[in-house]
């Protein structure tokens, strides 16, 4: 019962470095999402995907890129990290059913110095 | 984006009832959700309510929806220390393509 798995769970970057966060789900879900969580601001949607090969922008997409080459994986990339991207990142997925329940990973804590 | 608002903190004593409130902006949302986040973990769906309902009860949880005022509340009866967590309300106004979350209410349950 892996569900939604995020790697890495922790990472420290220097300003200007690049990195990729990997989200993998084993539930055959069509939809996948990347959120960031900041204190007092809740979760904000970065990018999402409605199926393999598709991506779309959310509320705060600047500075991030995503890819969904395989249905089970959704990658979030930071090309040139900035301190403002210090956050906890959550991946989520959902089935294409009526209630829209999201299944979340455990989060990835990223610090940009 | 959508504006979903919650108060940031709530403190109650064990055994009391907790009421967490949320206001949302989009009346077209089909479902409204409550998620629970325990320390160091991701969010888990606690309960949801269909927009044509005004109340839903599930064991110790009662969800009330006032569509006219766009107000959602979550009542936890007989609150336990294990209920200490952050509670998020969320809406999805566009047939589940996107979900908008409030800032979360941190519930602290004192023994």
How is this structure best described in words?
The complex is a heterodimer of chains A (113) and B (111). Chain A is mainly β. Chain A is 0% helix and 50% strand. Chain A has no helices and eleven strands. Chain A is globular. The N and C termini of chain A lie far apart (35 Å). With 111 residues, chain B is mainly β. Chain B is globular, with a radius of gyration of 13 Å. At the A-B interface, strand 4, strand 5 and strand 9 of A face strand 4, strand 5 and strand 10 of B.
Strand-helix topology:
The complex is a heterodimer of chains A (113) and B (111).
Chain A: E1 4-7, E2 10-13, E3 19-25, E4 31-38, E5 42-49, E6 56-57, E7 65-67, E8 73-78, E9 87-94, E10 103-104, E11 108-112
Parallel strand pairs in A: 2-11
Antiparallel strand pairs in A: 1-3, 3-8, 4-5, 4-9, 5-6, 7-8, 9-10, 9-11
Chain B: E1 5-6, E2 9-13, E3 18-23, E4 31-37, E5 43-50, E6 55-58, E7 61-66, E8 71-76, E9 85-91, E10 100-101, E11 105-110
Parallel strand pairs in B: 2-11
Antiparallel strand pairs in B: 1-3, 3-8, 4-5, 4-9, 6-7, 7-8, 9-10, 9-11
Summarize this structure briefly.
Chain A has no helices and eleven strands.
Helix content of chain B: under 10%
Q: Count of helical segments of chain B? A: 0
Secondary-structure class of chain A: mainly beta
What is the N-to-C order of secondary-structure elements of chain B (H for helix, E for strand)?
Answer: EEEEEEEEEEE
Multimer state: heterodimer
Q: In terms of per-residue confidence, which ranges of chain B show pLDDT below 50 for 5 or more consecutive residues?
A: none
Number of strands of chain B: 11
Q: Give the overall average pLDDT of chain B.
A: 90
């Amino acid at each position: 019962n892996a569900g939604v798995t995020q790697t890495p769970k922790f990472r420290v970057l220097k300003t200007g470095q690049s990195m990729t966060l990997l989200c993998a789900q084993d539930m055959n879900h069509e939809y996948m999402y990347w959120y960031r969580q900041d204190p007092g601001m809740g979760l904000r949607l970065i990018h999402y995907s409605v199926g393999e090969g598709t991506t779309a922008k959310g509320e705060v997409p600047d500075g991030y890129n995503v890819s969904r080459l395989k249905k089970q994986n959704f990658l979030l990339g930071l090309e040139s990290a900035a301190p403002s991207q210090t956050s906890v990142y959550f991946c989520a997925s959902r089935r294409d059913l009526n209630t829209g329940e999201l299944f979340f990973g455990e989060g990835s804590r990223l610090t940009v110095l | 984006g959508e504006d979903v608002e919650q108060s940031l903190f709530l403190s109650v004593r064990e055994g009391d009832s907790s009421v967490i409130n949320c206001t949302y902006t989009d009346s077209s949302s089909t479902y409204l959700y409550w998620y629970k986040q325990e320390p160091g973990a991701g969010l888990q769906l606690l309960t949801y309510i269909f927009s044509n309902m005004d109340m839903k009860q599930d064991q110790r949880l009662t969800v009330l929806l006032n569509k006219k005022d766009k107000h959602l509340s979550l009542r936890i009866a007989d609150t336990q220390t294990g209920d200490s967590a952050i509670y998020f309300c969320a809406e999805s106004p566009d047939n589940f393509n996107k979900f908008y979350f409030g800032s979360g209410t941190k519930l602290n349950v004192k023994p």
